[in-house]
Write a structure and sequence with these properties.
The protein has about 300 residues and is α+β, with helices and mostly antiparallel strands. The chain is built from 11 helices and 13 strands.
């Protein structure tokens, strides 16, 4: 089930190590990050229960410093922090994961008790940090997790935000967090188009497409390939390597095909590299029409078979 919350990395707010002025600046930056996450539907941030009692080098608590922020920033942070704590509202399987798993290192550095990062892994969500040191300035964290049941270890990449620019880096991942729970019952090709419009186009698709006007076709193809993959994924599709290879070979042209399963059958997307759009086909590969990246239908079905997808 999709989640619409982020987890806070409490290690980025070390107790007693940061001067109050620095911690205050980091909290101010955190409010702007949270506000931008709000704009794309990530409304809550889970924190450890002791977050507000953590202190600066001078002994001022995070709670005290929050009330030194300007009123709009203070309201954003207080509202965001009025969320369940890291381990609240877990189902039995998630609760068991908190007991049996432990983060042992981050980016190769031994790091015990990283509860917030473990939360991000368990819930498959994103982690938010204060930019308090170089460790927390990257857009991904390479994490080693130990399993106490079989004494095994495994590595995972955790999507990470400590500045607003990281939100753009993780646009596709953030969209996936807000895919409607009933999307499998939705037969429309783009069940998450409103969210994609917020995240990718900042509610202005004209401005989005204008960025590609002066590119040559090779440049457009490279850009559209990545964007199409992100937008398809954000709408619940997965890349279909078999159909991509089959249609590229038979059609003798570049193809990129994605598939989503619904209660009424599969839907296939084929990227239009010239226009920045998708040719949409039904479970039989029959063309249903052309849709723009925005999720808006642009052209009707082509009955000639030229835009059909070959399934076998």
């Amino acid at each position: 089930m999709p989640v619409s919350f982020s987890a806070f990395n409490e290690l980025s707010c070390p107790i007693g190590e940061l001067p109050a002025t620095s911690l205050l600046d980091h909290l101010r930056q955190l409010t702007h990050t949270i506000y931008n996450l709000w704009q794309i539907g990530i409304k809550k941030i889970r924190v450890t229960p002791d977050f507000r009692t953590r202190t600066s080098k001078e002994g001022e608590s995070v709670n005290d410093l929050i009330f030194r922020l300007e009123r709009p920033e203070r309201q954003i942070l207080l509202q965001a922090l009025d969320s369940p704590h890291i381990k609240d509202n877990c189902d039995p399987e998630e609760e068991n994961s908190f007991i049996t798993l432990n983060v042992t290192s981050i980016n190769g550095v031994s790091t015990p008790h990283a509860t917030g990062i473990l939360c991000a892994y368990i819930h498959n969500t994103i982690i938010v940090s204060l930019p308090s040191s170089g460790t927390w300035l990257t857009s991904n964290l390479n994490v080693t997790i130990a399993n106490s049941i079989d004494n095994s270890q495994f590595d995972r990449k955790i999507e990470h935000i400590s500045e607003i620019s990281h939100i753009n880096t993780h646009r596709s991942f953030l969209c996936r967090l807000t895919i409607p729970e009933n999307s499998q019952k939705d037969p429309s090709p783009f069940p998450n188009s409103d969210q994609v419009t917020k995240v990718y186009a900042r509610n202005d698709w004209s401005a989005f497409y204008s960025c590609f006007k002066n590119l040559n076709q090779l440049e457009k193809t490279a850009k559209y390939r990545k964007i199409a993959s992100d937008i398809a994924t954000a709408n619940g599709y997965t890349f279909n390597a078999r159909l991509t290879s089959l249609n590229s070979r038979i059609r003798r042209s570049l193809r990129q095909i994605f598939t989503r399963t619904t209660d009424k059958g599969d839907i296939h997307l084929s990227t239009d590299f010239e226009k920045g759009a998708f040719e949409v086909c039904d479970q039989d590969g029959k063309h249903l029409g052309e849709w723009l990246f925005s999720g808006e239908k642009h052209k009707p079905a082509d009955s000639s078979g030229f835009h059909d997808i070959i399934l076998r």
